[in-house]
Amino acid sequence: MGIASSLYSGVSGLTTNSNAMSVIGNNIANSNTVGFKSSRTIFADL
Asked: What pLDDT digit, counting tens, does each position of 1-46 carry?
């Protein structure tokens, strides 16, 4: 496992966490909107 794959793993984790935070923020911002359906982030190993 080289340094490039280690960096990719870290960046991938940060990107995934950022997407999860975006979904949470969107759910909070639209919680009082009529007809809004919340979204979920699902993590899975590949």
From this structure: 689 888 999 999 999 999 999 999 999 999 999 999 999 999 888 7
Show the tokens assigned to 16: 């995934």
> For residues 19 and 41, is the Cβ–Cβ distance under 8 A?
yes
| 16/22 Cα distance (integer angstroms) | 10
Q: What's the predicted TM-score (pTM) here?
A: 0.78
C-alpha–C-alpha distance, residues 20 and 44, integer Å: 13
Backbone angles phi, psi at 20, to 5 degrees: -65, -40
Coil, strand or helix at 1: coil
How far apart, in whole angstroms, are the C-alpha atoms of residue 13 and residue 15? 5
